Every structure is written in structure tokens, then in C-alpha cells.
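User: Continuing from earlier, I have the next pair ready.

Assistant: Great, send them over.

User: Here they are, in order.

Assistant: Folding the first of the pair now:
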Amino acid sequence: MFYDCYTALCQARGISRSRAAQEMGLSNSTVTKWKNTGATPSGETLAKVSAYFGVPVGELLGEAFPSVQEERKLPEGAVPFDPALTAPLLGTVRAGLPMYAEENIEGYIPITRKDGARYFWLRVRGDSMNAVGISENDEILVREQPEVENGQLAVVMVNGDEATVKYFRQEGSLVVLTPKSFNPVHQPQIYDLKRVQVRVVGLVVECRKVF
């Protein structure tokens, strides 16, 4: 199906489907139509997609090109790109918006983990964790899970607000979210689960520095 091919090409380039469509002068509703109906674009649109990604139109339609595939053989020792080993980069995590909504995905970044868990990258905002080397605009890899152990670094959502990255600890009905920052304005936050909703989104497992 064309949409599957389009999705794989976007992931290989590290760009969201909506962003690629925008750069080609196409609407998000067009991409949604490809997804929901399995429709094949018009010849004019196929030409745009072909030029944008640098692939033959026939390849977009699922046709085989043995000679082209031969030319694309990887050098010895190289690792082939696998779209399954990527995770979406989210600009933020907010309540009320599906976490993997198209408008929330800024691109795709490769991952090396093959444990079957679901992962996403999150762009860090603010300086509340800079004392442990996590700075503004860094990208953290998060494993989706509803619980973490005390003392682990987690992405947490409080009262449905935008998610925050803090060290997590729970004692009874009290949850303490602790920053690690050189900025003294950031202090531990204490919440009573009887009064405030605190939800763990996932466990931080990796940080990718962005300069």
C-alpha cells in the first residue's frame, strides 16, 4: 500500500508524515486519506513524492527493481536501516492530546533497543535537570511504562499538565518529584495523591545531547 511506503520513507529521512507533506505542498487531510482508504495518489502527486524522496514512482507503488536494489547493497560491515528500530521524537507530552498525534511528532530517531517495549524521544524544555547533564533541547529516550521504582528518573504528568522530567519517589499517598539543577529556583515538588493526579508516563533510559 502506498501509505506504508510513504511512512517508511518518512521514517528513513527522520521526518514526520505531516511535515513531509507540508514541504511538498500537500495537506494533512491528503495523508489521512491515504491512510484510511488505502488510496493511491494521482500521477502529479506521485511525481512530487518521487522527486522529494529521490525514489522511482514504481517503487512508491510497490514494484520491484532488482538492478536498483543491487546498486544499494551496503558496504561490508554496515548495518542496514530498519524503520522498526526508530522511535518518534515528541516536542512535548500533554494531556488531552494523543501522545503520538501527528502534530506532536517532530521526526524519528534510531534506537538500539530490541526488547519489544514501546519507546519515544522527548525534547527537554527548561534547566531543572542540568546538574545531571540533561540540558535544554536535549533529547531523552523514554520507555513507556505506568510505574517506576523509587529514585528512578521518569517522565511524569501532574494534574494533566505538560509532562515533566524528575526523579520519582512515592511514600504512601505522597509523591516527591525531585529536580537536579544548578538553578536554585527548582525545588522538590510534593503531591498528595488523594488530592492531585500524578501519572507516570515512562522511564528515562537515555539522553542524546543536542548542540
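And the other member of the pair:
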Amino acid sequence: MNHLKSTIEAAWDDRSKLQEPETLTAIRKVIDLLDEGTLRVAEPTPDGWQVNEWVKKAVLMYFPIQPMQTITTGPFEFYDKIALKQNYEALGVRVVPHAVARHGAFIAKGVILMPSYTNIGAYVDEGTMVDTWATVGSCAQVGKHVHLSGGVGLGGVLEPVQAAPVIIEDGAFIGSRSILVEGCRIGKEAVIGANVCITGSTKIIDVTGNESIE
């Protein structure tokens, strides 16, 4: 993994290396590891969430190295640089037409994808429901047994590379049409009502005690 990281960092600093076969292989390997959940853009540690900047760099460099291609699924046709995720039956994921997830997004066993969209770099853990017209943006991290209600939007955060993605921790419930962006973090088993908008700078006020506390 260290060699993979050093190759990505070198290419980030010198974009001429994007012409080298070793660099192309390394970038595509990172995307494959994201797709299978072996690697994550951000991960929990004993000291809090850690952003793996070099992984985000690989995602950003994946776009310019990929050729445009026609992608067909039954009667549907797409024209894009990134393939669609596949093999849902083997993964144990229920996918309702017309749910779409891109290659490079990890979808764990037991997840249900209603007609929705999950972008590259996202991580959706076991037992989570992504309801109708919900969007899981690039690099968003969604925990176990989360419910993303209809029309929820989790913003994508690719740049700047040091910025944390949107994080939804285990057991959270996100109400319909809520918008969560700019790397905000929703804690374990939190409940967000319908039509709530939370950004990275939104002030949260605790009114459960005798005095309001920000």
C-alpha cells in the first residue's frame, strides 16, 4: 500500500507521470480497492475520522485518464468515463430499477438501493437504506443501518483534498429532502427531520438542558 501511495503522490506533484503505465495502473488499482471496500477516502480511528488525502487525489486523477465510452444496460445507454457498479447479486445488495452506483463506490451486503444515485468514492455500509431519489455524493461515508429517506442529498467533497467528506454514522435517520453538505458529520443514531439543511459551518444548539449550548 505504501508503494501505491507514493506513486499517487508523485503523480499528483508531476502530472506528466499520468502518461506512465505504472501511474495509470496505480490509479486504477486505488479505484478498484475503493469499489471493494478495502480502501476508504475517510475512516474512523480512535482519535476521530481520518481523511486519506492520497486516495482523494487518485479519484481526482482518475477522471482525466479515463476515455469516454458507451455503457449499455438493457435498453438504456450512457456515455461516460466511469463504468457502472456490477455483480449486485454476489454482493448481497438489493438494487431497484433505476438505482445507479458508479464503479469505485463501495456498497456493503444488505444495502437496499431504491431508485437513487451513489457516486465514486462513496462508502455505504451494511443494512443501510438509500431511498428513492436520494443522492450519495462522491466520497460520502455512510455507516451501518442508516436510513436515507426519499430525496436526501449528501454532497460530494473531492476538493480540497484535505477536506473531510460528508459522514453519516451508524444508525442515523435522515429525513426526506434533507441536504447535508460541506463535510458535515452526523453522529451515531442521530435523527434529522425532513427538509433540514446542514453545512460544515452550521451551528448546532443543544436545548436539552436548562440553557442553550452551541
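Worth noting for the second one:
The domain at 2-65 is CATH 1.10.166.10 (Tetrahydrodipicolinate-N-succinyltransferase; Chain A, domain 1). The chain has a mean pLDDT of 94.
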